[in-house]
Amino acid sequence: MDMSIKELLLGVDIGTTSVKVCLVDVATKKVISLQKKDTAARITPDIPGGDLQDSSRIYYALHSCMNRLPKENLSKVRRITFCGQMHGVTLWNKTSGWRRKCKNSSDQFEVGDVSPLYTWQDKRCDSQFLSTLPRPNSHLRVGSGYGCSTLIWLHQRNLLKRYDYCGTIMDFIIGMITETENPSISLQNAASFGYCNTITRQWNAEQLREIKGFPLHFLPNISNEDQFLKNSWFDIPQGTPISPSLGDFQCSTLATIKNKKSAVLNLSTSAQIAFIIQESHFIPKDENEIIEYFPFFDNQYMAVAASLTGGNALAEFVHAVQCWVIDLGLSIPQSKIWDKLLTHGDNACDEENPLQIRPTIFGERHNPEEKGQVSNVVPANLNLGSITHGICRGIVQNMASMMGTKDLKNAGIELIMGSGSALLRNEILKKEIKLAYDIPVEFVEQGNACYGAALRGIHLMGHPIHHNNEKL
């Protein structure tokens, strides 16, 4: 046990495919312990296009991570900060949403009457449905997979009656471990739900009342007030404050960004490129349907181009290849398919006639009906390496079409920081990013969201976060 460590902060990231937790020394900002667990939470959707995750599996993945942290350090945790996947919504019953398994073991919670997590990838709210909704009193659009549009869809089919509250999956978990009845949500995550005015920090109650019978009381209170552990949790002391959960991309950006003149390009399941608006008293407008302005920290905004086309497009191709292999009566582990495709794809970098692939098979929020396209097909590029390289190039070119070099230079950006699990293990994507942007690029591994959440928590404890001697 390191006796020199006096105070620790616990950062938690509830991601789309995994949960990560880290213990960070408040004084040095160094990570003392990091744990990760895949959630394996995806479940069969209720309708075609639905995307659901089992809320209990997500919590149990967090429980597993907490069990593996060094117990001797947990009593030194002075604050907990959660972040996680944005847009998606979970519903729960106020009396039976959870229970403590044992009064003598306050870390043992059992998830009860809770809905699945309707994720940001859920497609039940198609363009036709979205066109029937009231126009938000907000500069931010409402899309499929957004909390409020999903709630309206469920409400119109009488599927909300057994529940009392809603929030992100992180809000539910915070409510459970603090044993708090009334949920709250940060402005960052409320903005991701849609129908939130980020200037007034209020839900669009007037617009939502246009939806007959819509239960406004479901929506959590938009707040930056802490909640507190009612009992100790994994030896973290009773009364430890927990901030309202934050957006994973904001936290990843905080952990990654180098200075005010740098942008962050994150490529994981999906993809985002963003920079922090330096203009004081910035008032966001809805003039651009592709670049949006989301709340960052300390009344700042970030300009974000968010794509639904990221590592998921490559993963779909790998899955397809595996299905083809099985159809041929063979068996190859998916990990080996990944290795072979990335190796052959890297070798196809200098082709004279490259395959042109637009891998937007999931559509985009500004164009939900968009489909993928393939062109420039010749006999020489009908091979796995060319296809893999074409998908990687297409992912990057799609991002650059949403926020390109000109947009970044006009904002004074001089450096792009590349991060994200799909990017860091893929040399093809790295090369294509350098080709697509006429700006220097650095790739960084430390930009995980749970560390960013921890940094934000340290800031809330009175320790400013500085990057290259600049206060963000």
Can you walk me through this structure?
- InterPro entries: ATPase_NBD (IPR043129), FGGY_N (IPR018484).
- By secondary structure, the chain is α+β, with helices and mostly antiparallel strands.
- It folds into two domains: 8-244, Nucleotidyltransferase, domain 5 (2-Layer Sandwich), CATH 3.30.420.40; 247-472, Nucleotidyltransferase, domain 5.
- The chain contains 15 helices and 28 strands.
- The strands form ten sheets. Strands 21-22-20-19-25-26 form a six-stranded mixed β-sheet, sandwiched between helices.
- A hairpin with a 2-residue loop joins strand 8 (98-102) and strand 9.
- Helix 9 (311-327) packs across helix 10 (334-347).
- The longest helix has 19 residues, at 384-402.
- The radius of gyration is 22 Å and the shape is globular.
Short description:
With about 475 residues, the chain is of the alpha+beta class. Helix content is about 30%, strand content about 25%. The strands form ten sheets. It has a six-stranded mixed β-sheet with strand order 21-22-20-19-25-26, with helices on both faces. A five-stranded mixed β-sheet has the order 3-2-1-6-18, with helices on both faces.
Q: Which helices and strands appear, and what pairs or packs with what?
A:
Elements: E1 8-14, E2 18-25, E3 31-38, E4 42-43, E5 52-53, H1 55-68, H2 71-74, E6 77-84, E7 90-92, E8 98-102, E9 105-111, E10 117-118, H3 127-130, H4 147-155, E11 165-167, H5 169-178, E12 184-185, H6 187-193, E13 196-197, E14 202-203, H7 205-208, E15 221-222, E16 227-228, E17 241-242, E18 246-247, H8 248-256, E19 262-267, E20 271-276, E21 291-295, E22 301-307, H9 311-327, H10 334-347, E23 356-358, E24 373-375, H11 384-402, H12 405-410, E25 415-419, H13 421-424, H14 427-436, E26 441-443, H15 449-460, E27 466-467, E28 470-471
Helix pairs in contact: 8-15, 9-10, 9-11, 10-11, 11-14
